[in-house]
Amino acid sequence: MSRLLGSLSLLALVGCVPAVVTQTPLPPEQPVSFANDIQPILAARCLSCHLPPDPSAGLDLSPEVAYANIFQVPSRLHPGVLIVNPGHPDASRLVLEVAGTPFINDLDLEVLRRWIAKGARAD
Asked: Does a structural domain hold residue 1?
């Protein structure tokens, strides 16, 4: 039992156990904010692998550079595809990469998709 708890603790530390960020759906009329809604999702679900000095796929999602590193930036692994293609969540590598994986829950994915669909503003 203690071995199982130790393993779960280690998984949580490296970000393999999904954290709960969005606990209830945002009302449809509520705008999605990068700082208040998207950055917390990225911090909880992506930062464990996307931090310097050697971020996964070369994508640094540190809070101070995350927006600049994803907004209208081509994917290094998928040339010709933008990481965040404003107005087009289904054509954004960020959505394609995490949808249907244990890295994000349905509520957080919907917030991410809505933010991109509305133009992925930096507000």
From this structure: no
Q: Domain range for residue 61?
A: 20-117
Peptide bond into 53 cis (omega under 30): yes
**pLDDT band at residue 107 under the 50/70/90 scheme:** very high
Q: What is the pTM of this model?
A: 0.81
C-alpha distances in Å from residue 27, one per residue of 57, 88, 104, 110:
34, 21, 20, 12
* Token output for 69: 């590193």
Q: Helix/strand/coil (H, E, C) string of 36-103?
A: HHHHHHHHHHCCCCCCCCCCHHHCCCCCCCHHHHHECCECCCCCCCECECCCCHHHCHHHHHHCCCCC
Residue whose entry in the numeric block shows the structure tokens 């540190």: 62
What is the total count of domains within the chain? 1
Look at residues 81, 82, 92 and name the one whose alpha carbon lies nearest to residue 116.
92
Angle CA(18)–CA(119)–CA(58) in degrees, nearest 5?
Answer: 50
